[in-house]
Amino acid sequence: DWVYVPGGGRNLYALGINSSKNTELRSWSMDTHKWTTIKDLGKIVTGPTGYGATYAAKGNAFYASENGSGNILKIATDGSSATMVADGPSSSSNDGARCI
């Protein structure tokens, strides 16, 4: 999933898994229609399988649920912080939406 974050410019944000199995913060430009990796966040969850639901938050951040572990992370759109904030249920896939 990807998320629009108010204050985050003309970008959509997402988390992805790279070939090293690290989590990457990525943005999709609504102007250029291209993905950019903002930051390699490292191994912030054990055995990531993919990120499902994402939700915008205040303060240029968003929440993301990692499907395999159920870990819910709060991510700053500039990549300055990525914090596990809750244990959720694991899922083969999930979706979500939120308006702020």
TrEMBL record:
InterPro entries: 6-blade_b-propeller_TolB-like, DUF6923. Residues 12-99 form the DUF6923 domain. Pfam families: DUF6923. SUPFAM superfamilies: NHL repeat (SSF101898). This is DUF6923 domain-containing protein.
